[in-house]
Amino acid sequence: MIVNITVGKPKLGKRRTVYDVRMGFLLGSYRCPFFGAARKLLELGFPESATLVMWHEGSTTWAMRGPLGKAAKLTVLENEKAGPVLRAYSTPGVVPEGTPGEPRLCHR
Q1: Which secondary-structure segment (H or E) carries 94?
Q2: What is the DSSP string of 5-16?
Q3: Taking residues 35-45, what's their average pLDDT?
Q4: DSSP 8-class letter at 36
Q5: Percent of the chain with pLDDT over 70
Q6: E strands, the chain, in order
Q7: pLDDT tens, residue by residue, 48-85
Q8: Which of 98, 91, 99, 46 is nearest to 73 (CA)?
Q9: Angle at 96 between CA 34 and CA 39, to 5 degrees
């Protein structure tokens, strides 16, 4: 199964830049749209084995793709000492072990 999502242009959220993600309807707004949308799709009952494909609005070329289950387990860490790097996703507010400095994780 292939699941296509479309990412809109960046917009300023409450405290950070976010991207609206759609798949015929608004799935949500995320700082890291590929990984955030993957978690939401799992919540909605999509299978982990599905392939998630992300497109930028108006583009004819996909931007990212990968297994939905694996994407849902990742986020991006970026701070003054590290990043951007892929990290295992953790619950918002929980700092992953071994993280230097104050991390800014892509949540929601």
Answers
A1: none
A2: EEE---EE-SSS
A3: 95
A4: H
A5: 83
A6: 2-7, 11-12, 17-22, 26-30, 51-56, 62-67, 74-78, 85-88, 104-105
A7: 999 999 999 999 999 999 999 999 999 888 778 877 88
A8: 91
A9: 25
Eight-state DSSP code of residue 44: T
On whether the CB atoms of residues 22 and 6 are closer than 8 A, the answer is yes
**Among 11, 29, 108, 19, which residue's Cα sits nearest to residue 63?**
19
Residue 76 structure tokens: 């991006």
What the block records as the tokens of 66 is 């990968």
Helix (H, G, I), strand (E, B) or coil at 4: strand
CA 72 to chain centroid, in Å, comes to: 8
Helical H runs in the chain? 33-43, 68-71
Distance from the Cα of residue 78 to its chain's centroid: 14
Size of the chain in residues: 108
Instruction: List C-alpha distances in Å: 99 to 30, 66, 107.
Output: 22, 25, 16
In terms of Cα–Cα distance, which of 3, 8, 5 is closest to 34?
A: 5
